Amino acid sequence: MLHGTSSLPRVGIKSDKDAVVVEKLKAAGAIPLLVSTTPEYCLSWECYNKVTGRTLNPHRLSRTPGGSSGGEAALNGAGASCFGVGSDIAGSIRVPSQFVGIFGHKPTSGIISVDGHFPTSGDKKFLKYLSIGPMCRYSKDLPTLTHIMSNEVFHSQLRLDQPIHTKDIDIYYLTAASSFSLSFWNVDELIQQRMLDAASHFKSNGVNVQHLNESFKNSDAEYIDMSEILEISICTFFTIEDIPDLLSNCGTSKRKDLWNELVKSLLGYSDYTTQALYFYALHSTNGFISLTKRDAYIKKGNEIRQKLLKRLGTNGVLFFPTFPQSAMRHSESITKLSGVMYAMFFNILGFPSTNVPMGKDEKKLPIGFQVISAPYQDRNCFAIAREIEAAFGGWQL
């Protein structure tokens, strides 16, 4: 199948073998239909490229299905496929899943092989942050697909074939990070309300539910400050040294100049998309954050990780936004990049996370939020997703 990753210089390139995850699915009886569309080099949160053009959201054609796994999301959200396989390094499964109203799971880091994925990197941090996972309309498919796709060595830790009851799961919720982050627009009020509705549903059924920090406001040792997760995510992610070089893959011996190509793309003359070039511009400038501050942010991220590991344990989950709003208009994502902090942060931490659909907003566009657990506790996410689907309806076309 085609392996060009939606980039003009790679048009016509085909894979010479199946990725490991595809081999596993085919061995279990799955029938691949196609390689769906992505943004160039999977480097955007909307699905546009110069090879196949623009992918549309099945709920409203003037909106994006998100990215990078936007083609998979659009097909599955429209009911055109039984399930999909996406990749997620900064929300690229979960954001599209919210935009089209399906379930999308970013698994625990490392449990599913990324061998055969492009782009790839020799940097171990890249391979840690990148996950491959299932996208589907029905929550009951999540544990089965994750079991098939995951490396057998992790099956005993994941315990996906063992029953779990939602009453045994502790639920924490946080409806927004903070207004003190670089993020300059708030989580939609209806998304926040739907998170509270879900929390209330579980609480009324005897589940232990509490705000992430309400009981720890006066304890610095226990309080989990999420106000700078955008800065933490950017600084940590951009320590990756070996990233695929978009501008060297152009059929010539000379590497093209990033800033020239960025200007040309804004004028419509570049062979590369503006979104992909903008990513490389951010990487080259460390997201416009000084190296001194970078080290402090990375340290803070490690501290938050340890606190969340302790809080969630083996039987806890966190309700947290997937993205601050429903599906964006086409070409709007570059002005709202800060919104990906909600999903991207958990790539950095390596925690499993599932987007769960929660109906539609006043624009008739799907909304949802993510259910997060500690590493190797993916089944907690699935159990909560099943109950939310039963209570609130799940996927709606």
UniProtKB/TrEMBL annotation:
InterPro entries: Amidase_dom, AS_sf, FAAH2. Gene3D superfamilies: Amidase signature (AS) domain. Residues 12-381 form the Amidase domain. GO terms for cellular component: endomembrane system. This is Amidase domain-containing protein. It comes from Polypedilum vanderplanki (Sleeping chironomid midge). The lineage of its organism: Eukaryota, Metazoa, Ecdysozoa, Arthropoda, Hexapoda.
